[in-house]
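I'm stuck. Please check this protein.
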Amino acid sequence: MVHKTLLIFLGGGLGSCLRFFITHLLSKTVDTTFPVGILTVNVLGCFLMGTTLGAFNSFATHSLWNSFIIIGFLGGFTTFSSFTNDCIHLLQRGDFGWGALYLIASVLLSIIFLMLGIWFVKYFYLIKFS
């Protein structure tokens, strides 16, 4: 149990740092009041979650990898709390259109990209091992 908790802790720290780096970089390069950084991280994180789950389902993996990558790294990388904070901030500013777009885009794109990640692994797994 200690090993698993330590791996979750380390993965979460790495994921959180990468989330900060990407959102900071995008806030400096994309001139917008729309929270494109967290949207990008959430969509990318869902794709990575899908590819990881697809790979874990295709290959026998150790539960410690699951703890490190799925629970730790991707849990720290994608944060629903950051998403909801950005959404509420848009709504409190009166940007109801942007708020609605952000809410719908975040949820739909995250689901689509998670499914795409699973498909991606299955497709390339079939090509490689056919």
